[in-house]
Amino acid sequence: MAYATTDPVAATAAPPRSMKQIAVASVIGTTVEWYDLFVFATASALVFNKVFFPNFDPLVGTLLAFGTFASAYLARIVGAALFGHFGDRLGRKSMLLFSLVLMGIATFAIGLLPNYESIGIWAPILLLSLRVVQGLALGGEWGGAVLMAVEHAPADQRGLYGSWVQIGVPAGTLLANLAFLLINSTLPTDAMMNWGWRIPFLASILLVLIGGYIRLNLSETPSFSKVKQSSAQVKLPFAELMKKSWKTVVLGGVATMSTGSSFNLIVAFGLSYGTKNLEFTRNEMLTVVLLSCAACLVLLPFFGWLSDRWGRRPIIIGGIIAEALVAFPLFWLMDTKTFAGALAGYLLMMTAFAANYGPIATFLAELFGTKVRYSGLSIAYMLSGVLGSAATPFVTTWLLATTGKGSSVAWYMIGSAALSIVALLLLVETVKRDLTEAT
Questions:
Q1: Do the beta carbons of residue 134 and residue 69 sit within 8 Å?
Q2: In a domain, 145, yes or no
Q3: Is residue 224 part of a domain?
Q4: What is the C-alpha to C-alpha distance for residues 312 and 361, in angstroms, rounded to an integer?
Q5: What is the longest distance spanned by two Cα atoms in the chain?
Q6: What is the pLDDT of residues 356-400, one digit of tens each?
Q7: Distance between CA 10 and CA 158 in Å, rounded?
Q8: DSSP, res 6
Q9: According to the model, what pLDDT value does residue 56 have?
């Protein structure tokens, strides 16, 4: 049965034309942020082990590259608390702009870094430092983008517009892989390793300028404006959050964990596994990722729309179960060593991921009151990154090295899915929640 809602925020929600502008701004902004994040993930799988960790065994070099990749997830927790504090105190818009600029500067600087042969150990140290800055920026950006969309949206379309923010993940990944695909197709291997890998990082500055310009024209959300007008902000949102809602934060993070595990299984481990163990070319694997991300662009708003009609939890649980069910088939299909098999496996996992990920942003936002919503939403989501995304490249690479079988990684995905379902069942359905409530 479809859900009906009488959320009062519907009466003050942005008009259709304005809502479309907000949705576009959210998509473009988060696309830039996730492009910056996943261009690093792609480079970690393809080149960083040789550029920044060349004196190590290939396996150790790859693990170190993925370890640097994972470091941003710890920084994201700090960024979520920091930006969440000011987002709940000062507003959503200003934090969105600052985080976008910070991410752009860090990504551009990575493209200028000298390699290990030039400055030795300082090369990976600087890489790690800039990766941490990326994490801080993303920790603040995602939650603000979600709230700009969800708090502006009509009550019966929050799932749909919240899923538009989620499009930034496959869109950013698509652009990151397209950039590497184009460079890898036009440059010889030596040029790719020496300087070609820098181009996607340097080019990100153009996307930041576009995203920043669009976000300058956004207005503050009705929910926060109401809190500000009544001077109802709390002095320490994080302390208030941990005092009253720490269980919700933890459960929200665990419930979201499987989204990071499944997606990073595809964009990080899958690239490395396909090229190094199954003898796919880099172009073939990049194309597989690109096509599956293109499909996800359509699937995410579809499942967000479904969650407005059937509730958040049923759609999300269905996606998590599907992730567990296709974990083994993903590797069986990749192990056929055919392009069609690998693509079919990726499309199966991406569809399951979309059902899980599409409604999750709105679901997390609806769990918290306005006064601590930026902090609660951001910290819960970034916690899921530490639990799921950060560990995935490291654990999956270790499992493959230990067992010699890519299918062993499927058990990791299944375990992650099981934990997420348990946490989700302990949380309440939120589709009818009134977002004008301050607490």
A1: no
A2: yes
A3: no
A4: 10
A5: 63
A6: 999 999 999 999 988 888 889 999 998 888 887 777 767 877 887
A7: 10
A8: -
A9: 62
Rounded-to-integer distance, Cα 231 and Cα 270, Å: 49
Max mean pLDDT among 227-236, 317-326, 401-410 falls in 317-326
Element containing residue 180 per DSSP (H, E): helix 168-186
The answer to whether position 3 is within a domain reads no
Question: How many Cα atoms occupy the beta-carbon half-sphere of 169 within 13 Å?
Answer: 27
Instruction: Identify the band that residue 9 occupies on the pLDDT scale cut at 50, 70 and 90.
Output: very low
Domain total for the chain?
Answer: 1
Cβ atoms of residues 119 and 410 within 8 Å: no
Q: What is the pLDDT of residue 368?
A: 92
Using a 10 angstrom Cβ sphere, with 0-12 exposed, 13-18 middle and 19 or more buried, the burial of residue 128 is middle
User: Helix, strand or coil for residue 188?
Assistant: coil
Q: Is residue 2 part of a domain?
A: no
- Give the per-residue pLDDT at 58: 63
Amino acid identity, residue 208? V
Q: What distance in Å separates the CA atoms of residue 177 and residue 286, rounded to the nearest whole number?
A: 6
Helix residue ranges, H only, 265-338: 270-276, 282-310, 312-325, 327-334
Question: Do the Cβ atoms of 412 and 269 come closer than 8 Å?
Answer: no
pLDDT in tens, 102-160: 888 988 998 898 888 888 888 888 888 888 888 888 888 888 889 888 988 898 999 99
Phi/psi zone of residue 279: left (φ > 0), alpha (ψ -120 to 50 degrees), beta?
left
Q: What is the pTM of this model?
A: 0.82
Q: What is the mean pLDDT of residues 168-176?
A: 86
Is 411:127 a contact under the CB 8 Å cutoff?
no
The region of weakest confidence among 215-229, 306-320, 410-424 is: 215-229
Residue pair 166/378 in contact (Cβ under 8 Å)? The answer is: no
192/184 Cα distance (integer angstroms):
7
Range among 76-85, 264-273, 298-307, 371-380 with highest mean pLDDT value:
298-307
Can you give the CATH number for the domain in which 346 is found?
1.20.1250.20
Three-state secondary structure readout of 48-117 = HHHHCCCCCCHHHHHHHHHHHHHHHHHHHHHHHHHHHHHHHHHCHHHHHHHHHHHHHHHHHHHCCCCCHH
Dist. CA 158–CA 171, nearest whole Å: 20
Q: Single out the residue of 375, 384, 362 nearest to residue 439, CA to CA.
A: 375
**∠ CA(169), CA(173), CA(175), 5° rounding?**
120
At 148 the three-state DSSP class reads helix
**Residues spanned by the domain of 311:** 11-218+232-425
Cα separation of 126 and 112, whole Å?
Answer: 11
